[in-house]
Amino acid sequence: MFGKPKKFWLSLALPLAVGGLAALLSGGMGDFKNMQQPPLSPPGWVFPIVWTILYLLMGYSAYRVYSSEKPQAQINRALTLYGIQLALNFIWPIVFFGFHAYLLAFFVLLLLWIAIFLTMRAFAPLDETASDLLIPYILWVTFAGYLNIGVYFLN
To answer: Which of 27, 54, 95, 116 is the most buried (most CB within 10 A)?
Structure first.
C-alpha cells in the first residue's frame, strides 16, 4: 500500500501545506467568532481539527490514485482535477476571511463543490476507495456552503 513512501508523505504534506498557507494568508478565523452565525455553527476550534483530517484524507486519496496501475492519461486527468479543487480550496479562505467577500466566497465554494464532485468521479474508476475518501470532504464543503451563505445574509 505504501510502496512509494516519499510520494506518500508528499501526498499528505501537499494539502496540509496548501491549507496552512491559505490560513496564514487569510489571517485565520479571528473575525469568525465576532460574526453573526447561522444555527448549527460549530465552535471555532472544530474547524482546524476537521480540516486537518480532511486534508489527510485528500492526500491519501491522491496518493492512491497516483499509485494506481491504470492508464497514465487517466491518472493525470484525475490528478489535474484534484489540483483544481485544491486551488479552489486555497482561494476560499482568502476570499472569505481575508477580503470578507462572503457572497463571492460562496460562489468559490460552489465551484469547489463541483470540482470535488468531478474529482471523485475521476478517482472512482482508478480507485474506488480514493473516491470514497473524499465523501467527508464534499459533505463538509456542503455544510461550509450553508455556513458561508448564512454569514453572508446575517452580516
So the answer is: 116
Rounded Cα–Cα distance for residues 124 and 129 (Å): 7
Cell readout for 37 is 452565525
What are the extents of the domains in the chain?
Answer: 5-154
Q: Residues with Cβ < 8 Å from 142, sequence gap 6 or more?
A: 113
Q: What is the mean pLDDT of the chain?
A: 95
Q: Does domain 5-154 correspond to CATH entry 3.30.420.40?
A: no
Task: Give me the sign of the Cα torsion angle 19, 21, 23, 25.
Answer: negative
What's the grid cell of residue 89? 480550496
